Predict the structure.
Amino acid sequence: MNLNIDFKKQIDKILPADEATRLMQTIEAGEPVVSLRFNDAKGFAVPSGLEQVPWCDMGAYLNERPQFTFDPHFHAGSYYVQDASSMFIYHVIKTLVKQPVAYLDLCAAPGGKTTAAIQALPQGSMVVANEIVPQRAQILRENVIKWGASNCMVTCDSPRAFGALESEFDVIAADVPCSGEGMFRKDDEAVSQWSSALVQQCAARQREIISAIWPALKPGGLLIYSTCTYNTLENEEMVNFITQQFSATTVEVTTNPSWGILPAIGLSMPCYRFMPHSTRGEGLFMCVMRKPQGPQASHRPTKQKSKKSFNAKLVPDIKQWIDGEYSFMESNGTIQATPLDVKFKLECIYDNIHIIKDLGTSIATIKGRKTIPSHELALSAHLAHGAFPQVEVDYPTAINFLRGEAITIDAPRGHVLITYENSVLGFVNNLGNRANNLYPKSWRIMSSHRPEEAPSIL
């Protein structure tokens, strides 16, 4: 790995000589840590024998990186592959957020910090996961659906569009686009693209993003600012900008010295630096800031959503497909179940923001007299047990299903859930002589490789 000489000079300026040397040696060794976070909402926990991530009780380290593409549990949302350092947001939320909140993850793709927030937030919270780049927003949507939560919507819009929704969010997480220095061990492209000019460009963009989104944060609300880079321009100097420009105050998060998290550089404020020579994970910077108290913006009138209650007589059993208390609405033939325990509906989002996944769970589509259960329902953590017949399949059949191929099963005719080691993979429509595969086309495994055995993770 050939690191830019200007990058090395930058590190020499911000770290003591011995630390700078250790960091460079660790980066150049090019051995990134592999970790994942298990989905307790689907009944999973860290398996015995795996080392737990110290700041996330649902996170664990792996000794090597398996081929996750060929693990059915990966596609079922039983776990999320996430860098251990990024899991720190789970600890931040668990420590600081004690009541239900309206939570915005502004730069959310691919979804690691979003699903960690969903996992850590108090019951009744609402999560809005946003990504401005459409292609990345679709990846975010897929990962949120796989995680199976009902309290999250996915949007694709700009920070400025959200900034117009004044005082709507209790917590905003901004994992802002950055120069990516913390990803050098695992991303050769980040190394080749880095330059001093890129650092300057990213810092300018970060100031624009925070300035645009700041009005959307409620007085007294929390901003969780983070980057995956090392330089002070995008980190400590950005914290200085936010505290001075917006009169924000930094918030301390309790940590354990044994975790190896480093403090701010040249700043006497609580900031949290994850560096691979000190912590077991990739590079991360995080700081939590509180907006000063003050008057909240008055809520604007909202339009009526283009939805209507569906005729329960047409589909009398549909409310039995999902556990919990929901309102059921129909729009363009799709039935959506919105949880009643979510305390924040934020109707203004429907008037002003581009939504690509609505709050709640898509239950089914109605086509004439047919009611077709959705893949989102299959992967929901709230899918009612016994709502549909289930067939447990072996590994080769599971892979064939995830490729979108037709499979043969011994089951009643109609819609049947396919499971692998108790993880739900999706629906088939069993016709008797064959089962039509209902797995989404855009999610299918496209590799021609057909492994004989599953990766050993769970």
Observations:
- The radius of gyration is 23 Å.
- The first helix runs from residue 5 to 14.
- The first strand starts at residue 34 and ends at 38.
- The mean pLDDT is 93.
